[in-house]
Amino acid sequence: METSADIRPAPRGGGQARALLALGLPLIGSNLAQIAIHITDTVMVGWYDVTALAGMTVAGSLFFVLFLLGSGFAWAVMPLAAAAAGTADDAQVRRVTRMGIWLSLGFAVLATPPLIRSEPLLLALGQEPEVARQGGLYLGIAGFGMAPALLIMALRSYLTALERARIVLIVTLGGAALNAVLNYALIFGHWGAPEMGVRGAAIASLTLHLAGALWLALYAAWRTPEYQLFRNPHRPDGEALRRVFRLGVPIGLTSLAEVGLFAAASIMMGWVGTVPLAAHGIALEIASVTFMVHLGLSQAVTVRAGQAHGRGDTDELRRVAATALVLSMAAALATVVLFLAVPDLMLGLFVAPDDPERPAILAIGAALLAVAAVFQVMDATQVMTLGMLRGVQDTRVPMLIAALSYWVIGVPASYALGFWAGLGGTGIWWGLVIGLALAAALLSARFWGAVAGR
Q1: Does residue 2 belong to any structural domain of this protein?
Q2: H helices of 312-410, where?
Q3: Residue 1 pLDDT class (50, 70, 90 cuts)
Q4: Given CB 3.0 to 4.6 Å as the disulfide criterion, which of 116, 130, 203, 339 pairs with 143?
Q5: Is the CA virtual torsion 78, 80, 383, 334 positive or negative?
Q6: How many domains does the chain have?
Q7: 154 in any annotated domain
């Protein structure tokens, strides 16, 4: 049975890359499987009805704004548990994980009510009435998935910190398959199921969240019994709770700032029109696929940097960071080529061939992917450096950098370029480029100057 005492630092040289990839590839795979779930929703709902797709796009953005704010506590488990694992402190691994679960579920209790009654909020945000109605129908069901989704994140962080990422991949792949089957049956009314449209997609999402949380919890109890994660789960631990809270709140707010930038872009695209909003949703799904590669590597570097930080090994920390950046930049450059070479091929998968809006959606989406090709390097740099900073438990300054980059600069730039400059949807996306570029520069300066340079 593996315990945290068995976790060793990665070797030098090429072994560093192999160690990162051994942990990172299953995480990348699970991230891609997770985004495949959202792509399945987008494709099937898009084939069912474009207005339903627009509603689900805005509603999904609202859900993920709250989800990522709450997932800060789950994210905090990863560096804290990894640092404890690096020094073979099994009790501390258990303590921070359990309190991470407490805080995650507590947040879900607060976040669920506004989600399940979201139509008035979507109307207040300026969405067209039918778009708001479709979004409200979606969240009226999918909103109940907040608690199991956050539990999945906490358990995923725990297992990743112990370098047991393969089970995360297996569970996510199973969820993607379940989601596709349920979507096909419930959205369109196949196999004797009722035709439920966007509500069918919501039921599928809720089901897979519940199944995934149960699967990971059973695995954690079965395969890591030495940590006794679920023994006396009701017992509070004030010191560990405070540590997770102090680290998790800035992580959640950082995620809120970044994803809120994209949610604000979705809302502004809704002001431009339903067809541009649908094109934006499709282009964003495609860009999210490639981002999952960098996110998986970022999660791996958080664990490896957390272990080095726990041992006080600054040289190891620098080697981990440099190797991760090289791997991420190689993937980013490949993505740039893909976005510029075959945009119509990728976009066309999301819209029915006979949809009258297809030509307009493809034209707008291709322009947006050209902009996305530009921000690939910036987006990769900022998420990789953020993972390094989380590994060394530096979260407050990155939170301030994110707030400045995305909300003080990025959102106003999107609005100004989209509406004042008259560039429409393309201008809104150029504002994203500006915010991400500033974040990448400032976060890099923070890590290499103030942390790794010590």
Answers
A1: no
A2: 314-341, 343-347, 358-391, 396-402
A3: very low
A4: 116
A5: negative
A6: 1
A7: yes
80 is a domain residue: yes
3 state SS of 228: coil
pLDDT tens digits, residue range 18-62? Answer: 888 888 889 988 888 877 787 788 788 888 888 888 888 888 878
CA dist list (Å): 163 to 86, 289, 444 = 11, 23, 26
Amino acid at position 17, single letter: A
| Residues 6 or more apart whose Cβ sits within 8 Å of residue 191 | 184, 185
| 358 is a domain residue | yes
pTM of the complete model: 0.84
Q: CA-CA distance, 411 to 257, in Å (whole number)?
A: 10
Handedness of CA 216, 219, 221, 224 (dihedral sign): negative
**Nearest 5 degrees, angle CA 89-CA 91-CA 96?**
100
Would you state the structure tokens that stand for residue 46, as one six-digit string? 């898009």
Q: 């791997």: which residue's tokens? A: 327
Tell me the pLDDT tens digit for each residue of 335-369: 889 899 888 888 888 777 877 788 888 889 899 99
Rounded Cα–Cα distance for residues 366 and 363 (Å): 5
Domain residue limits at 432: 24-451
